[in-house]
Amino acid sequence: MPPFLPPSRRGFLFLALLLSACLAAPGAGGAGGDGAAMQALRRELAPPGWGPGADHCAWRGVTCAGGGGALRGLKELQELQVSGNNLTGALPGWLAGLPGLRVLSAYENSLSGPIPPGLGLSSELQVLNLHSNALEGTIPSSLFQLGNLQVLILTLNRLNGTIPDTIGRCRGLSNVRIGDNRLSGAIPASIGDATSLTYFEANTNDLSGGIPTQFARCANLTLLNLAYNRLAGEVPDVLGELRNLQELIVSGNGLGGEFPKSILRCRNLSKLDLSYNSFHGDLPEDICNGSRMQFLFLDHNEFSSGIPRGIGGCTRLLALQLGSNNLGGQIPAEIGKVKSLQIALNLSFNHFVGTLPRELGRLDKLVTLDLSSNEISGPIPGDMRGMLSLIEVNLSNNRLSGAIPAFGPFQKSAASSFSGNAKLCGDPLDVDCGSIYGSNYGMDHMKISYRVALAVVGSCVLIFSLVSLVVALFMWRERQEKEVEAKKAEAGEVVVAAPQVVASTVFIESLQQAIDFQSCVKATYKDANELCNGTFSTTYKAVMPSGMVVCVKKLKSVDHAVTHHQTKMIRELERLAHINHKNLVRPIGYVIYDDSALLLHHHMPNGTLLQLLHNDCNTDGEKQKPDWPRLLSIAIDVAEGLVFLHQVATIHLDISSGNVHLDSHYNALLGEVEISKLLDPSKGTASISAVAGSFGYIPPEYAYTMQVTVPGNVYSYGVVLLEILTSKLPVEEEFGEGVDLVKWVHTAPARGETPEQIMDPRLSTVSFAWRRQMLAVLKVAMLCTERAPAKRPRMKKVVEMLQEAKNS
Predict the structure, then answer these.
(1) Cut 0.70: pTM above it
(2) Which of 113, 431, 507, 792 is most buried by its number of CB atoms within 10 A?
């Protein structure tokens, strides 16, 4: 059903479609068969996409079998898709009488009652998707009786009873998602007969018994999620034979035994979640075993001994949760080798002793660190200042001593993050170091011998002499340059004074010789070098003497106040340079001169999404024609970049197609991320547009809240999606006065327009597959641009929906 159909019509249309299945006369044809029934519905309800033509099989939401014969009683109906339409009531039993039905999709409604018991007995049902309703009763065993079912998605309902043993009859069953229900009993051993199984999710139920060893026969199994049930026993060793397994999630059960080492044979394993169980014993030395492990959650168990030194081999790990165990010993220095750690490192509520390893400072991507409630002693090493991405830290309830190092994330933390350490002092604790260690604490740490003092004084004299010599040479060179400029001026040549560079650096060592700062500055003098003009900056193309091409972003006057806080600015830029995400543009350097700031980035040869959609040429002037798979991939790239930003508590200030940059392979990178760190919108501004984005992308609530938010980011991203789908700018004259792209799309039904009339026909008419994917993405865009912020999905959910659309 079209997403634009009013709720009052949606429910009636759904019932009418089903009733027509039984009311149509079996012997009727032509005007008295399906055609007449469907035409009557069209005249009564006038749904968008149902035209006056005789071929009702071409109408949106209706799929008929071919063959040209007369349709009778909707017996030829193959697909019924009525998801997301606020439907209520029960699923009619008439559904079981549709022999040609292959796909029934009615997810995200308010349907109640049981699943019709005869469903699947007399049809060719292959896909049943009823997730996010209020369905009750049991899962009918008839669903699996004929063995045709391939996809079963019943997540988020109120279903009870057991998983039918007949599930094994469906050899082609690939996707089973029955989580968040009230199912009980054991998982049937017949599950091993469903040898095509790829995804099995039964989390958050009341399942009991053990994990069936028969899962090992499902060689294609990629995801096994049995979290939050009442399962007992051990993880079967035979699961290690699942070479394609990527995620094993069994948290929140009553499982026990030692760490299931056999599971480490699954070399594609990226997520292992054994948390909230009763596993015990030592952790294996080869805890990652060369796998692709990214998420290792072993917290809230009874593991003992210590962290194996083999942890240093987990080179792809993003999050490590070992809290609430019985682990002891020292935190191994090898933890510093896991430089991929990004989301969290949690070792809290254990029995670790000794000092904090200096190697923690190598974790420059880590956002959250929790080492609280251990027995760690000694000072906090200054090397931890190398944790440039750190936002949350908790070192409370240990035996740490000495002064807390001066480091932004430490001083910005609450005092509770360091409390419970009797001998720890300094900001943010309200404890003066002198009160603990005496008034001579500072002097004791500055005492030096007489010989050392002489050496220092001698070195200072030598350095002063060398500096004086260098200054004299620079003054002589400057005098020579002025004489040359004076001669040029006499000859009538225009002379541009060289700016006074206050600070500059290149973060990437291999590029330091290739980038010339004066060339970057001079590139901003010529309009011909301008690539794009954004809300916060103007971007120029600069060619270095080495031949390298660099993008130079010059902050506009509204941002010049930032340059007066150079220390903060430089610190934020250095942190951003170390943020490692493939879909975010990272600065490679900066130049601060006079009252201006330049940010340096890699040159993006394919320009921006704005140019791709509307200019038909890239930054090098080459013609380009966007295709749907490329545009969908770009949309997913941007969404994944935003997911990461929101995970690290960063809100983007200017999401627009002009800030989506495309590299040589058309991978999308979201730009202007540094602006979100350099500006502080909370301090107010004369115009919300000065800190909240480009015209046409700004959420409506910003006009009265004057505060940037995560839902606001989702709205702006939704505008970008609509821009991709329609190939129209956010604001165009054809929309009419006071109407932007969002309003134009949302009011399409009132104008009598169908989704096909909204989408760019150059894309939607290429193939049915493209059209189907575009309709799915349109639904996502509509959700993202809901007027009420609370109704907009999280970006993580957006990524899931886009991936689902891509794979449909």
Answers:
(1) no
(2) 792
